[in-house]
Amino acid sequence: MDSQAFGADGGFPDTAGLPPGPRRSPGRVVAAILVPLLALAVSGIAFALSGGTPSYDAGAKAGSSAGASDIAARAAWRSASADQILPPKIDREGTEAYYRLGVDPAVSCAQLPGTFVKALGAAGCEHVVQATYIDSTESVVATVGLVAVGGTSAQRAVLFQNWTADAYARQYSMMPSAYPVRASLAASFQNAQRVAWKSAISNDGSYIAFAVSGFADGRLGPSAAAYDLGGESELQSDSPPVQVADDLSSTTMVGFSARYPSVSGARS
């Protein structure tokens, strides 16, 4: 993959479609000036540039409709551009919108926590694509990702049955890492700033979408112990990061499934 296309060392931020910021500090003004000089096009570049060949179900028969559908679903992420998987703008709850700040050039499953990968079971992980977003009020940031699951169709069916998004969302060790985007409003979004996360899985078990959220002002999120206890105020259901993590994970999966009919629906 061309690292310059998506940016290196934290990634170059996106600029197209970003709303005018309601509040700007001098540091943000400087960043806004630098962004056009640094940004490079990402919208037309497919994640397929990572190389290699997809791991299809060894038991799928090429002449069968089930086998053809399975192969099409497994190939969907490779034929899609960044904008088709993680669009520049995600609409949430009517007028609220989230704007993409940058796409992570890495697609390795090594980005995921070991406990997350373990929960994938025998199906395993093929690739991870992710990007970081900010809301139009510049209050909440979120790293949104899509996991391409490996294994056979039978193994993915087992994963679908066993994937418990609500229970996993309450486990700190399962939470994917934040993706900070340098020279952007999410430059300080590190793991310590994570507040909440949620996931959604396609009905055929081929893909899992996730969203990891936090506050845009850089405040620290709960510790691992506090997170697992769930007693912090920012972890309650009415907390903006909790709501955003839930909505963006499900919206991403529903949108991806709608664009690629071979990917069978979604469950969050």
How are the elements arranged and paired?
Elements: H1 3-6, H2 26-38, H3 65-79, H4 82-85, E1 89-92, E2 96-103, H5 114-119, E3 125-135, E4 140-149, H6 153-162, H7 165-168, E5 196-201, E6 207-215, H8 224-229, H9 240-259
Structural account:
The protein is an alpha+beta fold. It has one domain. The chain has 9 helices and 6 strands. The protein has helices at residues 3-6, 26-38, 65-79, 82-85, 114-119, 153-162, 165-168, 224-229, 240-259; strands at residues 89-92, 96-103, 125-135, 140-149, 196-201, 207-215. Mean pLDDT is 78; it is low at 1-12 and 22-64.
Characteristic key phrases:
single chain, 268 residues, 31% helix
Give a summary of the structure in a few sentences:
The protein contains 9 helices and 6 strands.
Uncertain stretches of 5 or more adjacent residues: 1-12, 22-64
Largest sheet: 6 strands, antiparallel
Query: Beta-strand percentage?
Result: 15-25%
* CA-based shape: globular
N- to C-terminal distance: 31 Å
Number of structurally distinct domains: 1
Mean pLDDT: 78
